[in-house]
Fold each of these.
Amino acid sequence: MHRGRIFVVSGPSGAGKSTVLARVLSALHDVKFSASATTRQPRQGEQEGVDYYFVTTEKFKEMIAQDAFLEWAQVYSHYYGTPAGYVDDALAAGKDVLLDIDVQGARKVRQKRNDVVYLFLAPPSLQELERRLLGRHTETEERIKVRLEAARKEMSAIPEYDYLVVNEMGHVGDAALRVQSIIEAERARTTTMLKIWGDLVEPA
Ligand code: 5GP
């Protein structure tokens, strides 16, 4: 059995990451979503163990001390981290794993591993992002300002990523399809395929 791969997906909140990733996960076999641990409060509709593991700051620090994270970062004054155990188990079982993490987290993963594919999901513009954040009615104006500033910073990291997918308003299906195609293309790489189909090549 071949080992799966990690696909990191970053992008400003409001770019539609969760909607796009939900579509990808329901369309593709053998792709697992790694729910992060976070110290932020659950939003309406978010499920423990599905969207996130909601933990106390004390518990989060305990996990850092136990080296339980593949990476972790502080985002908007809360802690977020990727539990290493889940990722390792899924990869060993031959599953690909999607990580929805920020730019800082992606940089930390890059320092640790050299077999990861990096995708950036961007809104068509910052103005469009502002419109989406205002439309969600989940944040105060002050928080939206903070998020927009963070988005500007995150988007300056786009050149660090292997793939850029722009999620255009009303075309979430297209963005999801593009992410799926990237995953499929990476799966079809000769180096990956020969781990499964090595017998196809006769020794020269
Ligand atoms: P939200 O609170 O809107 O769900 O997420 C805020 C930001 O935290 C998003 O950019 C998301 O990608 C990032 N994030 C979520 N989980 C993790 C994680 O485990 N590690 C890091 N570094 N960032 C994360």
Amino acid sequence: MSNEELWQAVLAQIQLNISPANFATWFKNTGITSQKDSQVSIFTPNSFVKEWLENKYGKNIFKILHSLDEKIKEVNFEINKSGLKILKRTVASIPGDGQLEFQELEIDRQTNLNPRYTFENFIIGPFNELAQAATFASAKNPGQVYNPLFIYGGVGLGKTHLLQAAGNEIIKNFPQKKVQYLPAEKFTSEVVTAIRNREIESFKSKCQKVDVLILDDVQFLAGKEKTQEEFFHTFNALYEKNKQIVLSSDRPPKAIPALAERLRSRFEGGMIADISYPDYETRVAILKAKCLERKTDFPEEVLSYIATNIQRNIRELEGALNRLIAYQKLNNQPPDLDAAKTLLKNLVSAPSKVVSVKKIIQTVADFYDLKEKEILSSSRKKEIVKPRQVAMYLLREELKSSFPFIGRRCGDKDHTTAIHAYGKIIKELEKSEQLGEELTLIKQRIFSG
Ligand code: ADP
Ligand code: MG
């Protein structure tokens, strides 16, 4: 078998077991340099990819090669210094350089989509695998598989990226389909304008003409009754015609406060998938992928430092990388670990990142759509008591505060109230999955916001 044929055979098998995005990221511009005696040499475009392939896919690649040709006993990876021609056929299904290199391209006026968000550059890990798979399936078969599709998760974890990737993918596969991406805030302001200008009918019919409606951050509809009503009509009209609806939110439908029951049950009627926090390996993979996109390279220990210290927000991972890139440009060399630590000091351990009592109470109030003062009040209303107990529980769990302190800070209550609240939430958590989910989301916000 020629080098090319052999590598094609390997890739064909690898491709079966990994996502298209990961495949594109790690196997682009790879190939076999030589087959000598029992050894096969594989070239990779740079040291990141080399290490990644060695560590993550090395065993698998060897197994496949060995199964294809028993004489092969060893595989080694090298960096493609000799400028070997890259196998055209191999990369045919992989996006070309131009696509991976992000120039901030114009946002499409018609669809509101930003072409920089694609499935190809979306890295998959255990934390977002289900959400990605569901979104990808919907994009391949709009309106047919999951409708509506509802993606939820904390700040900076890839919801907008996924939703827009779906839109871009649909346009690519079905150029005739009308796709509309809208942040829920924009939808709301359009409703308000339409009402003011007495154009609600034409607004309605405009909304109902699309084939795919993507509404980002639907938690913004909370409490906006008129907007919810308009959205309900649009939703039904599209749904009945099997038009794909994709939604995102920072929490599951049942945890969105002041959402009309009929809308909630519509949201729950389709597929719901969440995105949680990326694990360490995926954080490193994301950093490496972003380095590749930016055609840059940093010492492994620097990337590992970032991935260890920024855990809960992918946007912040990117932010850290941007700082290092700026340094590199200025100094004509990549920062070493010490320089990186200094550069990232305020990102990694910014004083604002230290969780405070205030932050916890504020976040809980926000989450349940209450004012801080309501949490601190002595109201016995159910919709206030529970959030207050949640705040007390979190103060105990996250800050290890004493019960007298918790009582005092939650509106001058007795320490027995704090003890009771803490116990109540613990007991409740055993019974209620929903409460567990709410706490996860609140914590995500406390730590990533
Ligand atoms: P959210 O809408 O959940 O707040 P975004 O979709 O805006 O988050 O993501 C924040 C940033 O992180 C974006 O620049 C996005 O491209 C990037 N990002 C998020 N998830 C991934 C991923 N799995 N792979 C690559 N980039 C990601
Ligand atoms: Mg977003």
